[in-house]
Amino acid sequence: MKLHQLLGYLHPFVDYKGENPEIISIENDNRKVQKGSLFICIKGYTVDGHDFAQSAVANGASAVLAERDLNLNVPVIVVKNTIRAMAVLADAFYGQPSHKIHMIGITGTNGKTTTSHLIEKIFADAGQKTGLIGTMYTKIGERTFEVKNTTPESLTLQKTLKQMVDAEVQTTVMEVSSHALVHGRVHGTDYDVAVFTNLTQDHLDYHKTMEEYKKAKGLLFAQLGNAYSHKKPKFAVLNADDPASEEYARITSAHTLTYGIDNHADLKATNVHMTASGTSFELVSPFGVDKINIQLIGKFSVYNVLAGIAAGLASGLPLAGIISSIESVKGVSGRFEPVDGGQDFSVIVDYAHTPDSLENVLKTVGQFAEKRVFVIVGCGGDRDRTKRPLMAKIACEYASNPIFTSDNPRSEDPGQILIDMEEGVEGESYIKIVDREEAIHYAVNNAQTGDVILIAGKGHETYQQVGDQILDFDDREVALKAIKQRKEK
C-alpha cells in the first residue's frame, strides 16, 4: 500500500504531501523494521519510540509517524496521537479483518479466561473454525501462540486478526482488559457481541478508584456502535447480578441479553446444586426450562456458563447444541484444576488473585471439603496494594489453615508484601512461608485424609517473576513433586 493511500485513512487533517513510498509493513518496534516499513513512534511507560526512530531508519524504514518533528532522511508524518493513529492505520493496512469475522469480546474482573474458552468450544462444536485471544495464549484453529498481554496492542491485534481471516476463521473470542480499553488497543475492532462477567476490586494501582475501573470496562459496550443492523445485530451480554450492568445497559445502543442467578434475567439459573464432581441447575430462558449438568464446580462456574450460553444465543446458535457443548467441558487449565498424585486429600490450583475470586473459590471448596481447608496465597508485587489485607482476611475467614507466601513479587521485597497482607488479619491464626515452593511442600506434608489444599493466585502460569528474573515455576508441577516425595518417605 502506498504511503499517501494509507495516510488517507487518517483524513485531511494530517498535512503531508511529500514522498510516496510503498509501505510493506507497519512496525512500532525498531528491531522488527525492514526495508519498506512505516515506523510508528509510541511513548511507553519506560521508553519513547521517538528515541529509536533513527535506528528504525537505519534498519530500512521508508517513513516515520511521530508526535513531533524529527530530523531524519525519510518522510516524517506528525500526528497528535500516534497510538490512535496506529489503530486506524493497522485496521486499514490489514484490510479491516474484524469486519470479516464474527467477533466476541469479553471483559470483567474474573471469569474472562474460562468464559472465553467455553464460548470458543461452543462455536467449535457447532462446526465453526475459531480463533481465541486471551491471557493464556492466542489460538488460530488448532495452533497456539504465546502472548505478552491479555489483549495485544492494536497493531499486533489487527495483524493477528488478518492471520485469522487468512486461515478462514469464522468466529474469534477474545478477552478485553481494562488497560486495553483505556489505551485504545481495541480501537477499530468491530465486535458483534460484548460480554460482561463481573466487576470486583483489581488494578486500582492503575485505575485508582472503582468508579474509574467501572468506566474503563464500560468502554467495550459504549463502543459497540450506534446503528442497528438487522442482518448483523450487536449484542451486549450483561450479568444481571452485578450492579455495573445497569450502567453498561444505559451506555450501549446494542441489544441487551442478561443472565444471572439471584436477580431477574433473560437467562436465569435456578435450583443450583453443587457436588465435588460437578454442578447442576435449571436454565430458565425464553425457550423454556432446560436441565443442565456441567462438570465444573462452583457458583462462579454457573455464571461463566450462563455468559457462554448467552453469547451463543446472541450469535444465533441453537440452544440444544450450546447445552451439549458446555456439558462436555471438563475444565480450563489453572482454573479450579485438580492435582492428582494418588493422594487421599484434594489439591486444587486456581488463578484466584482478587479478593472476590478468592472468596468465591474458598466458598466452593467449603461446600465439599470433608475436613480442613489449607489455602496458599500471596499477592503480586508492583500491583494494587490495597487488596493485600483483603486477600489475607478472606483467606483467614474461609480457610482453617491459611498460608501466606510469595506470588510474583517483581521488584518488591516479598517479605514486605506479606507484612502488607498481615495488616488485615491482626489476631488471626496463619503461617508465613515466603518461599512459595516451601509453602506448597508444607501444606502437602501436613494434609490429612479428607483435607483440601487450595493453591491460589497463579493458576496456569508456569513462571515466577522475582526482580528482573523470570523463573520456571508451575504450582501444579511443584504440588505433584511434593506429593510424590511425601509418598516416598
Overall mean pLDDT score?
Answer: 94
Net shape: globular
Described by its quaternary structure, the protein is single chain
Mind summarizing the main beta sheet?
11 strands, mixed
**Beginning-to-end CA distance, first to last residue:** 67 Å
User: How many β-strands, per DSSP?
Assistant: 23
Counting helices, strands and paired strands, the structural category is alpha/beta
Which regions are unreliable across 5 or more consecutive residues at pLDDT < 50?
A: none
Helix % is 25-40%
Beta fraction of the residues? 15-25%
Rg to the nearest angstrom? 24 Å
Helix segment tally: 16
Strand order of the largest sheet: 8-7-6-9-5-10-11-12-13-14-15
Care to describe what's here?
This protein is an alpha/beta fold. 34% of the residues lie in helices and 21% in strands. It contains 16 helices and 23 strands. The chain has an eleven-stranded mixed sheet, with helices on both faces. Strands 16-17-21-18-19-20 form a six-stranded mixed sheet, with helices on both faces. The protein has a four-stranded parallel sheet with strand order 1-2-3-4. The radius of gyration is 24 Å and the shape is globular.
Topology (SSEs and partners):
Blueprint: H1 3-7, E1 25-27, E2 37-40, H2 53-58, E3 63-66, E4 76-78, H3 82-93, E5 102-107, H4 112-125, E6 130-133, E7 138-140, E8 143-145, H5 154-166, E9 171-175, H6 178-182, E10 193-196, H7 204-207, H8 210-222, E11 235-239, H9 244-251, E12 255-260, E13 267-274, E14 279-285, E15 288-294, H10 299-314, H11 319-327, E16 337-338, E17 346-350, H12 355-368, E18 373-377, H13 388-398, E19 401-404, H14 414-422, E20 431-432, H15 436-446, E21 452-456, E22 463-466, E23 469-472, H16 475-488
